[in-house]
Amino acid sequence: MEHVKYLILGAGPAGLSFGRALKDKGEDSFLILEKEMTAGGLCRSTDVDGSPFDIGGGHFLDVKRTAVNEFLFRFMPKEEWKFFERDSRIEINGMTISHPFEANIWQMDVDSQVAYLTSVAKAGCNRDEAMPEKFVDWIKWKLGDKIAEDYMIPYNQKMFADELNELGTYWLEKLPAVSFEETLLSCLTHKPYGTQPGHASFYYPEKYGYGEVWLRIADTMASHILYDRQVSAIDIENKTVSTTLEEDFRADMIITTIPWAEFKVISGMPKELADSVKMLKHSSVETRYVPENLETQAQWIYIPSPETPYHRILVRHNFCTGSKGYWLETRKEKTGSYEDDNYHYLNEYAYPLNTVKKPRIMRKLLEFCSLRQVYGLGRWGEHAHYNSDVVAERAMKLAGEITGK
Known about the structure:
Largest sheet: 8 strands, mixed
Shape: globular
Oligomer: single chain
């Protein structure tokens, strides 16, 4: 049984950032196990029709985390990235407006503005009503019935789950904060107010897909990565891991960045806790290439209409230099209506679902494991909807904490 000081499960952004942070601190006894034949996880890129295609959908480097940007620029210099101001839009009721919705109602016709403003004014949060506990009720309480029914409810059903009340409301505070007064002011002055959404400004590689930077990081640790290693079992108490190739690995510390559901066997913890992993839910999303160009300057387009199966369009030719076409994102359950043969890729693990029970499950799971020097990290290790920049930041922080360097 091979023994290392640090065993890292998964060579996506979380695992790669953690491994590279270890190496930067002079640590050399670590190993990364990756089930695919290449690194990058959800941020992997491939070549389709002569240009990059990001199989995981819309992954971009947010500009806000300076330390993360400086870290990544070591492997792909800043000169190889292009800077963008985000242009994302929503197609709604035959109109196209900028995102976020409540900050850009002013782009609609006057009758629609009046209808939406009236609805927002009547929202529970503007009438001092108590915040509800169910997802659908919370959306109506926060944004009013009309935005909820025309946009937020159908869009989230398409992206996450048909039954939205399975989701909690604890994560919804991350929505762009736009008050009624700011919504009204935007309609009067014809410009948006309120906080900006994520990726308001972002970097994207000029000549490559987003996966290129992660490949370069992996190349600096090539001797520490084993590919085609599907992890099948973990023993928390003994800090051992088994793969489907019947290999066993032991470590002083394990850092898992893979979905907990990937472990067919979890040993060394109470059965009740191990069983709770089965209650964690996720969505699966297909990305699909379409070769035609769109007449738009937008990079993102949100599609809430139930008439189309896809929920989001990424307009490749507006952020990827020299490319054409766009790609669609569609939840797995809604992909059956496609009849074309364009390139497509199904991400079985796309988004962790923020279900009502998830916080309690993950708190107990991560606390139990960390006391035994097994750490969950990143979107899947923590079962949290983190973007790659957040994941890299958390990886660097964890590496500092557990090495003491």
